[in-house]
Amino acid sequence: MTDAPFAPGFVERPYWWDAAPPPVPPVLPLPDQVEVAIIGGGIAGLSTAIELGRNGVPALVLDREAIGWGASSRNGGALSGAGSLGKVRSDLAEAFGKEYVAELMEEGEQAFESFEAFVTREGLDCDYARCGRFVGAHAPRALDVLKRRIEMINAAGTEEAFFVPRERVAEEIATERFYGGMMLRRAGSLHPGKYVRSLAAAAERHGATLRGGVEMRGYRREADGGFVLETSQGRLRARKLMIATNGYTGGATPWHRRRLIPVASYMIATEAIGEERVRRVLPKLRVYGDTKKVLYYFRPSPDHTRILFGGRASFVNADTRRSGATLHRFLTDLIPDLADVRITHSWKGNVAFAFDMMPHLGEHEGVHFAMACNGSGVVTMTHLGQAVAQTMLGGANRPSAFARLTFPTRPLYTGHPWFLPLVGLSYQLRDRLDGWRVPRKDSA
Fold this sequence. Notes:
Elements: E1 6-11, E2 33-39, H1 43-54, E3 59-63, E4 78-80, H2 92-96, H3 98-122, E5 133-136, H4 142-154, E6 161-165, E7 180-184, E8 187-189, H5 192-205, E9 209-212, E10 216-221, E11 227-231, E12 234-243, H6 254-257, E13 261-270, H7 275-281, E14 287-290, E15 296-300, E16 307-311, H8 320-334, E17 343-353, E18 360-364, E19 367-371, H9 378-393, H10 420-433
Parallel strand pairs: 1-17, 2-3, 2-12, 3-9, 5-14, 12-19
Antiparallel strand pairs: 4-8, 5-7, 6-7, 10-11, 11-12, 13-16, 13-17, 14-15, 15-16, 18-19
Domain FAD dependent oxidoreductase: 36-390
InterPro entries: FAD-dep_OxRdtase, FAD/NAD-bd_sf
Keywords: Oxidoreductase
């Protein structure tokens, strides 16, 4: 493989970790007994711990890796509210009913507003900016899908989405590949590494104990409703238990694992090209996506000097050097003005999809959970974590509408998505039938 896409000093790790690397887990003993044990030290788990701590309930957060090591510090840092619900399926009203979907949309919009207030209240240092989101239509037939999404979003009462005709796409992005698009005003961006680091600091400030490098290997429920956890550092007891492992859910929680489809998502960061050139290709400095089945998502870096670009570079477990070359090819095909720009970082992380493509929270046999962000995790998992905490506290004024969703699985599915390569081929075929063409591999 040619080294043409790779800048000197190229590394296979998240760009976000340059400024906010996951902390080295301390080797410290675990308490024998805790009020609440949270498994998963990402956005959902830390948000739960913060909300519990604000209400006087200290939590223990365990993660088999460093706190924040997973998708929470690897994602694209693009944020939206209800707009993310229609991203992966356009038949919400038909599937769940108009009244219920209206509840979900309203909660999604409120979650975004609450997120902004949460960042301010906790003083989270995460480079947050409300910048808006542009979603490009990859084919003419996608225009009708976008228009339905716009109607659904605006029906929530916010009137924050509008259609962008093809002749105005250049005002948003320097490409001729899109046939129009959707603009969401109620959307933003942040630095994922800094966000999860700030969440961890806030959780500790509110009384939580954080322990990375500790794996939960199993648990059992006791007669009094509490739990005994078997961990890599011994046994402990917890009155309540929450699972917030999402795309990294393992065999210790098989019921949850059977309901999640872990999918690797890949990203690259370009070399620094300066704000002037970034603005030439992304004039409004928003966050961006498209309507393809094999979608792209991209944005400027927080300092506006680089382009960060992500997508499904592979539906098998590809190495990040190869996926980096693939994403570079996708980027330069979409925005030809970047053909001479090399990349400095390439990485991947697991997102978790549910079979119904919806976020889920709830309780199963006494175990609380918040899972399945379906590729839109920052606002979603912050909100679901807080909602789980309110449920544990028994003080939710209005239970989350998402808690009423059945969490489906499929017969014989055990959490190993053997079918992903087949799904990937079908998605690629559907995109090609829509008229989308990807450049040849030998052009990299």
